[in-house]
Amino acid sequence: MSKTFPSSAGHQAQPQAPARRQFTLSGLALGATALAAARGALAADAPATPAAPAQSSGPIVLHGASPRLTMHAVDTFHGSAATGLRVDFSRFDGQNYVLLRSFIVNANGRADDPLLIDDSYRAGRYEMLLHVDEYFAAKGAKLPRPAFLSKVPVRFQVVNTAERIHLPVQFGPWSYTYSRGS
Description:
By secondary structure, the protein is an alpha+beta fold. It folds into two domains: about 15-50; about 70-180, Transthyretin/hydroxyisourate hydrolase domain (Immunoglobulin-like, Sandwich). It contains two helices and eleven strands. Strands 3, 4, 7, 10 and 11 form a five-stranded mixed sheet that branches. The chain starts with a strand and ends with a strand. GO terms for molecular function: hydrolase activity. Keywords: Hydrolase, Signal. This is Hydroxyisourate hydrolase.
């Protein structure tokens, strides 16, 4: 039962805040105890060896599509596909990155064709050089000059040519990120 105190303004009496806090803290403590008990029960049933990260059992198969390398570029500054972005795609020859092709990202944020497919899909080190300075200038983005990012290198390796690799790239005027997808 909570205590009340008289109101000086003629309003109804209000429960004291400490009683409400005590009720809330009691509820949190009870929940934490139940959670700890559940974790303890799960730990008792857990195997002795720690679980390994999920691994794929083999190459990704998409409706008969052959293994390939594809990409997708998203402009996080404008919140849209990076339509018009120029990309230079190169392969490392042991000393330098040698240009394989240049392309302009289409309306969906992708290259029109896979970057590597069939006989061109070989193991090795690769680079996509994104010309983000030219891209933002062409979009008329009001950014400080000189630009913080100019040419953004996305470097990666193809190890297993039986797997499909998709590279989603997100970039803005001050940052970029990419990951391996499938």
